[in-house]
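Researcher: Please predict.
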Amino acid sequence: MKLPNQSSPPLSRMWSWRITFVAGLILLVVVVMGLSFGPIAINFQKILRTLVGAPGSLTGQERTLLLYLRLPRVILAGLVGAALATSGAVYQSVFRNPLADPYLLGTAAGAGLGATLAITSSHANIYSLLPLFSFVGGVLAVLVTFFISGRFFAEPNSLLLSGIAVGSFATAIQTYLQQRHSSALRPVYSWILGELTAANWTIVRWSSVYILIAIAILISISKQLDGLMLSDEESFSLGINPNRLRVIAVLAATLATATAVSASGLIGFVGIVVPHLVRGITHRVTNRSLATIAMIGASFLVLADLGARTLLSPAELPIGVITAFVGAPFFLFVLRRKRVTG
């Protein structure tokens, strides 16, 4: 017996792992560039010898620059890029909206409020807990969104409207706190624009755990996520529980997004640009590309961070400025294309 819409593109086109292999090679090249180039160039052969502990490795300031500044920063950029790109792709499937991004359910506003609370606190040691505050704020915002939507297994439109309301309320509180503490405006805005200057091995260790777990969950359910691109009735006919799957996907994507935001601040457009770029190049609209999207997202943000470090050297641009410069025109292109084809 033939299942409904069995021949529809999202469910019938098998993903080629050759594409994923090419994405892995691109990521490797970009990581090499991120480690080698910057205000101070480092020879890659010496970088490789240092990483494997072979003779002829870097010494002195160059070794410190590589191991304690540049390497953790490149790794963190890759993790954040992978988290945002994967979450964006999943949100676009869950809400059946090609313009959905990882911050859709109030994650960004909640994380921004948490970070503002940490920065404006009168206790100096609380500033060091900024990642924790922003992480908790992002997660709580999404949980409140589910609560306001009326039921945990909410419909996409109900979740979307609830997320807009929660985000607006959190932004209002954040603005009030900023006006009450004008001295904190600069660090708050620096965080909002995104920054990787504080990257260190401690941040890399704890963020990698949550991001990798979240991405692994999303990849493990990627075949089922294709079913969410159909109607709920058609998903049920394929043996998929869309409500349960929707909750799992949103919670895993929120975990990845909240962790990324807490580690690097708000970096926009990655979740929109990368999924559309991968799907546009491969001509395959399927969530089986999540591993590829994750690697291209990592490559995209490592390149953006390299630009942020080098374009105005020795000064440094916020990485969010770089992603917005690339992402805003791309967003308009996708919007126009959607209007033409819609």
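Model: Confidence is low (pLDDT under 50) at residues 1-13.
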